[in-house]
Design goal:
The complex is a heterodimer of chains A (407) and B (91).
Chain A: E1 7-16, E2 19-20, H1 22-29, E3 36-38, E4 51-53, H2 60-63, H3 74-90, E5 102-107, H4 113-125, H5 135-138, H6 143-152, E6 159-161, H7 164-180, E7 185-192, H8 197-204, E8 234-242, H9 243-248, E9 256-265, H10 277-288, E10 297-299, H11 306-320, E11 326-328, H12 341-355, E12 357-358, E13 373-374, E14 380-381, E15 386-393, E16 397-404
Parallel strand pairs in A: 5-6, 5-7, 10-11, 10-15, 11-13
Antiparallel strand pairs in A: 1-2, 1-8, 1-9, 3-4, 7-8, 9-16, 12-14, 15-16
Chain B: H1 8-19, H2 43-57, H3 65-68, H4 72-90
Helix pairs in contact in B: 1-2
The chains are: A alpha/beta (407), B mainly alpha (91).
Domain Ketosynthase family 3 (KS3) (chain A): 4-405
Keywords (chain A): Acyltransferase, Transferase
Pfam family, one (chain A): ketoacyl-synt
Chain lengths: 407, 91
C-alpha cells in the first residue's frame, strides 16, 4: 500500500431526470433546465404531494438482457445500465482487469420499493404463491452492488452504505479506502427510484415534501419561500481507480480526484449543540490538504426546508465566511435523488472543472439572511480546480467530499 | 373432465415470463435435453418457474422437482405425470 495513492475518477455513468448519459445530463444541467413536473408514474391526484423529477424514456428492456428484467427493480435497471455506460466511458471492458481487483460499493436509501410494492399487491390480492421468488433480493439495499458485480464479473471488495443522501458520499469514501488497500477499480455511487405509491407515502410520512403544484416554485432551497423538497429518481456511478493504475493502462479521461472526505453525526436533537456539518467540511478539507481559499465552489445538500437550509448555510459560512465561496444546487432541476444525489453532484463537479462553468441553482431567489453566494438563474464562468460536495442524510448524517482537478 | 397437458411450448413461455432467456440461448432451438443450468437458469429462476407452473396448473411440485428433472424433456414429462394423477383422483 502506498500512502501517496490518489483515487481518481476515470469513468461516469449517469441517469437523472435531466438526462441519460454524460452529454445529455450536462447539456441540460449547465444551462439550468428544470426537469421537475407532475408525477406520471402513477396518478398523484389524491396525494398531498404531486411533483417529482422523473426519468422519461428509459427503455430497460432494450438495454438489458431479458434474464435481468423479471428480477430487477427500476433502480437496479438504472444502475446496471449506468454501469455499462461507466465501463464504456472508462474505456475498459469487464474481463480486462482481474475479477478480484474490481469491486462495487454503492449507496441506497430506499431499496427496490416499486418491485416490493408489486409483489405485496400480489400477496394481498392473489396469495403468497403469486409472489415472485426474486422478491427475496430485488428489494434489498445491496442489490445494485450485487447485480453490477454479477453481470460484470467484479468480485473484489463490494458492499452497500445506507445513510440516506450522505450515503452517496460515504460509498465513494469506502471505495477510496478499498483502492488504498490495493483494489484496482471500484465502481461507486448510488441509485434510488421510488416514485411509486408505496415509496410516495413512505416519503410523505417524513413530513418534508413540498405540496406545491408549480414545478418552478416547489423546491426552493435557501429561498424565503422554501417549503419542502421534491423527490426525484436516478443517480450516478463513478469508475474510481488508483491514479497509477489509470495512467499505466492509458485511461483516456481522468476527470478528477477524490481528494478528501469527512463525515459526522449530528448531536441529539434538543441538545443545543452545533450540528455536525461544519466539522464534516473541516475534516474533508483537512483530509485533502486544502485551504478554504482554494475551494472554488460548494455543491450544497440543499434540503429545501428552512431549518435545514439555515444549518447548512451556517456551516458553510462558519468555514468560508459570509459570501465567501460560490454555492450551487443543481439538484433544484431534478429534485432530491436520495443515494443518487451526491454522486450526481460529484459528476457535476468534475464537469464544472472540465468546462470552467458552475451550473446554476434554478428557480431560487436566495434569501439574503442566509448570507451565501448562491449561483442562481445563470451558470457562472469560473476557473474550477477544487469543489466541495455536501450531503446530509435523514437522521443526522453529514458527509463532505473534496473533488480536485488532476493535471 | 378432459386431461390437461403441460406442453414444451408452455414451459418456454413460462420461462420467458418468469425468468427471461439468457443471451446466447435460443429457447426455440434444440434444448429439450439441455440441462436447465446450461440454459442459464439458476436455482431462483427455477423456483420462480416452478411457482408459475403450480399456479397455472393448480398442482403442487416437490421441492426437488428440478434436481430430479434437470432438462425440459424430463420436467415436462414429470409435470404431465402429476396432471394425469390429478385427473384420475378427481374422476
Amino acid at each position: 500500500m502506498s500512502t501517496s495513492t490518489r483515487t481518481v475518477i476515470t469513468g461516469i455513468g449517469v441517469a437523472t431526470p435531466s438526462g441519460l448519459g454524460i452529454d445529455d445530463f450536462w447539456a441540460a444541467t449547465r444551462v439550468g433546465k428544470n426537469a421537475i413536473g407532475r408525477v406520471t408514474h402513477f396518478d398523484p391526484t389524491s396525494y398531498p404531494s404531486r411533483l417529482a423529477g422523473e426519468i422519461r424514456h428509459f427503455a430497460a428492456e432494450e438495454l438489458l438482457p431479458s434474464r435481468l428484467i423479471p428480477q430487477t427493480d427500476r433502480m437496479t435497471r438504472l444502475a446496471l445500465v449506468a454501469a455499462d455506460w461507466a465501463f464504456a466511458d472508462a474505456g475498459i471492458k469487464p474481463g480486462d482487469i482481474p475479477e478480484f481487483d474490481m469491486g462495487v460499493v454503492t449507496a441506497s436509501t430506499s431499496g427496490g420499493f416499486e418491485f416490493g410494492q408489486n409483489e405485496l399487491k400480489k400477496l394481498w390480492s392473489q396469495g403468497s404463491q403469486y409472489v415472485s421468488a426474486y422478491q427475496s433480493f430485488a428489494w434489498f439495499y445491496a442489490v445494485n452492488s450485487g447485480q453490477i458485480s454479477i453481470r460484470n464479473g467484479m468480485r473484489g471488495p463490494s458492499g452497500v452504505v445506507v445513510s440516506d443522501h450522505a450515503g452517496g458520499l460515504d460509498a465513494i469514501a469506502q471505495a477510496r479506502r478499498q483502492i488504498r488497500k490495493g483494489s484496482k477499480v471500484i465502481f461507486s455511487g448510488g441509485f434510488d427510484a421510488s416514485i411509486c405509491t408505496w415509496g410516495w407515502v413512505a416519503q410523505i410520512a417524513g413530513g418534508r415534501m413540498s405540496t406545491s403544484d408549480d414545478p418552478d416554485r416547489a423546491f426552493l432551497p435557501f429561498d424565503a419561500d422554501a417549503d419542502g423538497y421534491v423527490p426525484g429518481e436516478g443517480g450516478a456511478l463513478l469508475v474510481l481507480e488508483d491514479e497509477l493504475t489509470a495512467r499505466e493502462r492509458g485511461a483516456r479521461t481522468v476527470y478528477g480526484e477524490i481528494a478528501g472526505y469527512g463525515s459526522t453525526f449530528d448531536p441529539k436533537p434538543g441538545s443545543g449543540r452545533e450540528p455536525g456539518l461544519r466539522r464534516a467540511i473541516e475534516v474533508a478539507l483537512a483530509d485533502a490538504g486544502v485551504e478554504t481559499g482554494e475551494v472554488d465552489v460548494v455543491f450544497a445538500d440543499a434540503a429545501g426546508t428552512p431549518r435545514l437550509d439555515r444549518e447548512e448555510a451556517d456551516a458553510i459560512n462558519a468555514v468560508f465566511g459570509r459570501h465567501g465561496v460560490p454555492v450551487t444546487a443543481p439538484k433544484t432541476m431534478t429534485g432530491r435523488l436520495y443515494s443518487g444525489a451526491a454522486p450526481v453532484d460529484v459528476v457535476s463537479a468534475v464537469l464544472a472543472i472540465r468546462e470552467g462553468l458552475i451550473p446554476p441553482t434554478v428557480n431560487v431567489e436566495p434569501s439574503p439572511e442566509y448570507g451565501i453566494d448562491l449561483v442562481t438563474a445563470q451558470p457562472r464562468s469560473a476557473s474550477v480546480r477544487t469543489a466541495l460536495v455536501l450531503a446530509r442524510g435523514h437522521g443526522g448524517y453529514n458527509s463532505a467530499v473534496v473533488v480536485r482537478a488532476v493535471d | 373432465m378432459s386431461e390437461r397437458k403441460f406442453t414444451f411450448d408452455a414451459l418456454k413461455r413460462i420461462l420467458r415470463e418468469g425468468a427471461g432467456a439468457d443471451e446466447g440461448v435460443d429457447l426455440d432451438g434444440d434444448i429439450l435435453d439441455a440441462d436447465f443450468e446450461e440454459l442459464g437458469y439458476e436455482s431462483l429462476a427455477l423456483l420462480e418457474t416452478g411457482g408459475r407452473i403450480e399456479r397455472e396448473y393448480g398442482i403442487s411440485l416437490d421441492d426437488d422437482i428440478f434436481t430430479d428433472h434437470r432438462t425440459p424433456r424430463a420436467l415436462v414429462a414429470a409435470v404431465n405425470e402429476l396432471l394425469k394423477d390429478n385427473t384420475v383422483s378427481a374422476a
